[in-house]
Amino acid sequence: MKLKLDENLSRSAAEIFREAGHDVHTVGDEGLLGSTDDDVITVCQREERGLVTLDLDFSNPLIFTPSEYHGIMVLRLSAHPSHDELLLVCRTLLQALEKEAVLGKLWSIERGRVREYRPESSGEN
User: Fold this and answer.
1) CA max distance for the chain
2) CA atoms within 13 A on the CB side of 7
3) Helices H, strands E: what count in the chain?
4) Among the listed residues 61, 64, 90, 60, the one whose alpha carbon sits nearest the alpha carbon of residue 75
5) What percent of the chain has pLDDT over 70?
6) Over the stretch 15-39, which tens digit does the pLDDT of each residue have?
7) Do the beta carbons of residue 116 and residue 61 sit within 8 Å?
8) Residue 51 CB neighbours (<10 A)
9) Residues 93 and 109 sit within 8 Å (Cβ to Cβ)
10) Where are the beta strands (DSSP E) in the chain?
11) pLDDT in tens, 32-82
12) Strands 72-75, 50-53: pairing kind
């Protein structure tokens, strides 16, 4: 899968995804450090890449409608995470990506758990 890692993720996180066979670009490597969320997600869309981030702003489906993007994956860590915790959450995401496509979806990933945002039904029974 084609992924873009946000600026809040380490190079070692990028390596984990590359080693698993994913095509990974990072915000830092592309000169997008300090870019707005809108700019980052626009670049992801143009490149047909899913976004992997720690930025909770991307978890708001009213601002970033999941169906409009190639996947938004928000990693959820403890208040004071260790580097090992980050890598474990990345591995949880990798396991989920092996089983299911994230295209058009919003995932919230914790260690050992992936939750998918599902919009409320249109009121039909």
Assistant:
1) 48
2) 13
3) 3, 6
4) 90
5) 96
6) 999 999 999 999 998 999 999 999 9
7) no
8) 25
9) yes
10) 2-5, 23-26, 50-53, 72-75, 106-110, 113-116
11) 999 999 999 999 999 999 999 999 999 999 999 999 999 999 999 999 999
12) parallel
Report d(CA 11, CA 102) in Å as an integer.
22
**Token reading at 48:** 């047909």
Q: Return the number of other C-beta atoms located less than 10 Å from residue 24's C-beta.
A: 22
Which distant-in-sequence residues (6+ apart) come within 8 Å of 111 by Cβ?
A: 85, 88, 89, 92
89 to each of 19, 36, 59, 76, 97, how far by Cα in Å?
16, 25, 16, 8, 13
Place of tokens 């490149």: 47
